[in-house]
TrEMBL record:
Cell compartment(s), UniProt: Plastid, Chloroplast
Pfam families: Ribosomal_S16 (PF00886)
Family (UniProt): Belongs to the bacterial ribosomal protein bS16 family.
InterPro entries: Ribosomal_bS16, Ribosomal_bS16_dom_sf
One GO BP: mitochondrial translation
Primary location class: plastid
Superkingdom of this protein's organism: Eukaryota
Alphabetized Gene3D superfamilies for the sequence: 3.30.1320.10
GO molecular function: structural constituent of ribosome
Plastid recorded as keyword: yes
Keywords, alphabetical: Chloroplast, Plastid, Ribonucleoprotein, Ribosomal protein
Gene that this polypeptide is encoded by: rps16
Record's protein name: Small ribosomal subunit protein bS16c
């Protein structure tokens, strides 16, 4: 099972976090499958790679609570939900043979 979680980087008293897709059984500092963003809590900067995050979410990756809160603040969670609804409605139309 995959998770989207934070990986600690930076130096002492000046940490930043990378948002990574990683296997659940790995350690926090283990080797990630892919880096999908970063979060700097001191300067309050966030960068999210939306296509990569969507790819892993469609594959069944579960975001941790902290990553979910970060994505919600950036407005990505709303985008993700509407993208899933659009994809599901497209699949339903194709299964019925209407489009």
């Amino acid at each position: 099972m995959l998770k989207l979680r934070l990986r600690r980087c930076g130096r002492k008293q000046r940490t930043i976090y990378r948002i990574v897709a990683i296997d659940v059984r790995s350690r926090r500092e283990g080797k990630p499958l892919r880096k999908v963003g970063f979060y700097d809590p001191i300067n309050n900067h966030t960068y999210l790679n939306f296509p990569d995050i969507l790819y892993f979410l469609e594959k069944g990756a579960q975001p941790t609570e902290t990553v979910q809160d970060i994505s919600k603040k950036s407005g990505f969670l709303h985008l993700h939900n509407s993208a899933l609804i659009k994809a599901n409605s497209t699949n339903a139309i194709q299964k019925r043979g209407v489009g």
